[in-house]
From TrEMBL:
SMART domains: Mab-21. It is found in: Cell membrane; Nucleus outer membrane. It holds the Pfam family Mab-21_C. InterPro entries: ITPRIP-like, Mab-21_HhH/H2TH-like, MAB21L/cGLR. Residues 31-82 form a coiled coil. It is a single-pass type I membrane protein. GO terms for cellular component: nuclear outer membrane; plasma membrane. Enhances Ca(2+)-mediated inhibition of inositol 1,4,5-triphosphate receptor (ITPR) Ca(2+) release. Keywords: Cell membrane, Coiled coil, Glycoprotein, Membrane, Nucleus, Signal, Transmembrane, Transmembrane helix. Residues 404-477 form the Mab-21-like HhH/H2TH-like domain. This is Inositol 1,4,5-trisphosphate receptor-interacting protein.
């Protein structure tokens, strides 16, 4: 019985365990799920393989690009190294070429400077001219007395006549000008060789400068090259002149310094008055659309004003007045009925601040200044201080000192030589500058009348040294030893020295012509002087000797 019950229970349990509803047949779907998974895995593997290929291609492309860049950088670096080396050699070659060219031009006709001289003989004439004959003291003194001294009286009479006429002409000019709109003309001043008593060559020409100022409420504000602002080398010695209203700040209108408010407008700088302001500036002789004084406009205004003034007073004189040079505003010529004529220059200038330095609009032909950089650039002239310095030094020198005689003889020799061989880059102003330097450095007793020959040789030696170095500095600019009695502006004493021979550095042809003319003058010195001394017996010359101490 128990055994039977056990068997029945075992059968029941077996039946329950094997019943399909209790344990479904999972193994049948496993096969199906596995195949699906395998298929997805294959697809995923294919995707990964394609991605791998793409990444490998990108990596290869980047590596190739990197190699190209590295190669290009290497090529550029090589090119730069080659270029640097080439530029270095090119620059070095150019420097060597320039040095050779300068040496060749300086020495192609022989070294005219005695390089073997000691320090004391630095200014001695070059070895090519050691045998040049030079007139002795007696001949020089006689030549000066007979050829030059006699012209002093003629100059004095001419100065008196020209000054009187110029004063009358300027008075008439003031009367024909509109005092409310035209420039105000001041009294003229005499400057230059005629008023320093060393003019020797005819025709005598008086140089007069005429300061002028703008009408009220305007004023001039000047800016010079040494005032702190940078000026190019070709503008050294020049300045500009700005026309401003008296109540206008140096940097602009007072409206720039004042808060006017939203409902207030500057009447000077309003848009409606811009055209009127520009027209006013042109009426005040300014360059177009600027406030800077135009030298060309000044020239036209002055010529017209002088013409009107002469028309007003011409009936008082028995001669004609005309402009002798078209490129100089005040180059005038008086023509008498007898055929004789007198030339003089009446040049408008602008005073620099409260000094006797002036901005000059135009220089007479063949004078110091070269072409102006522009018509708004004005050259500065120190002629008043130069005249004052010579007068002051003359009072300290021995009686009948030879300083003016030296300058007169040298000016005569140079002018005579230029009339034979043509003009050179050397001017009378250069010769006067040489004298001014020697007057400052030489003791007063060295200018005694009996030392005329020695001082004339000193001027020639100093001039040759300056020509050799291409350096002749302006006497006043950069000279801290100017006597305080002159009242010379300190700003010019502190400026960098101005080289008057800068032209020779830039133009080799002018320099060579000047050197040739100077050397020819030395060779012809005795002949040029003896030409006027044929009636003097026992004319003899001696070689140039250095003055014994």
């Amino acid at each position: 019985m128990p055994m039977g019950i056990f068997r029945v229970c075992l059968v029941v349990i077996t039946a329950i365990v094997n019943h399909p509803l209790l344990f479904p047949k999972e193994n049948g779907t496993v096969l199906e799920n596995t195949e699906e998974i395998i298929q997805k895995m294959k697809e995923r593997e294919e995707i990964l393989r394609l991605e791998k290929l793409r990444l490998e291609q990108e990596i290869e492309g980047q590596e190739a690009a990197q190699k190209v860049l590295e190669k290009a950088a290497k090529v550029v670096e090589d090119v730069k190294e080659e270029k640097v080396q080439w530029d270095m050699w090119t620059a070095l070659s150019m420097v060597i070429f320039l040095l050779i060219e300068l040496w060749r031009q300086d020495f192609q006709e022989g070294n005219w400077q005695d390089t073997g001289a000691d320090e004391d003989d630095m200014a001695v004439l070059g070895k090519a001219f050691k045998g040049v004959a030079f007139p002795d003291k007696a001949i020089l003194a006689s030549f000066y007395e007979k050829r030059i001294l006699g012209t002093t009286g003629d100059m004095a009479r001419m100065r008196e006549m020209v000054e009187g006429f110029a004063d009358d002409l300027l008075e008439a000019l003031r009367s024909v000008c509109n005092r409310d709109a035209d420039m105000e003309v001041e009294d003229c001043m005499g400057v230059g060789s005629m008023y320093e008593n060393w003019r020797v060559r005819k025709p005598f020409v008086c140089d007069l400068i005429v300061p002028f100022a703008p009408p009220e409420p305007y004023c001039f504000r000047s800016q010079i090259w040494c005032s702190g602002d940078s000026f190019p080398p070709d503008e050294q010695g020049y300045g500009t002149i700005k026309v401003c209203r008296g109540d206008e700040d140096e940097t602009g209108c007072i409206c720039d310094k004042t808060k006017l408010g939203e409902d207030m407008l500057c009447l000077l700088h309003s848009q409606g008055n811009t055209t009127r302001l520009s027209s006013e500036m042109e009426d005040l002789l300014c360059f177009k659309n600027t406030q800077y004084l135009d030298a060309d406009q000044v020239m036209k205004w002055f010529q017209i004003a002088v013409t009107k003034a002469w028309n007003k007073i011409s009936h008082k004189y028995e001669f004609d007045l005309s402009f002798s040079l078209l490129d100089s505003p005040g180059a005038l010529k008086i023509k008498f009925r007898s055929g004789k004529s007198i030339a003089f220059n009446l040049t408008p200038v602008v005073q620099y601040e409260n000094s006797d330095v002036y901005f000059i609009s135009h220089f007479p032909r063949n004078c110091l200044a070269a072409d102006l950089p522009s018509s708004t650039h004005w050259f500065l002239t120190f002629a008043v201080y130069e005249r004052r310095f010579i007068q002051m030094i003359s009072k300290m020198l021995p009686a009948n000192a030879c300083h003016v005689s030296c300058l007169q003889i040298l000016s005569f020799l140079h002018g005579k030589q230029c009339s034979l061989t043509g003009p050179s880059g050397l001017t009378n102003y250069h010769l006067k500058t040489v004298l001014l330097h020697l007057l400052q450095t030489r003791p007063s007793q060295d200018w005694a009348p009996e030392k005329l020959e020695a001082r004339l040789q000193d001027m020639l030696k100093f001039l040759e040294k300056c020509l050799h170095e291409k350096k002749l500095y302006h006497f006043f600019i950069g000279n801290g030893k100017v006597p305080a009695e002159l009242g010379f502006p300190i700003i010019f004493q502190r400026a960098e020295p101005l080289n008057l021979f800068r032209l020779f550095v830039l133009h080799r042809d002018v320099y060579r012509k000047t050197i040739d003319t100077f050397h020819e003058m030395l060779r012809n010195t005795s002949a040029l002087i003896n030409e006027y001394m044929v009636h003097i017996p026992h004319v003899h010359t001696n070689g140039i000797q250095k003055e014994s101490v």
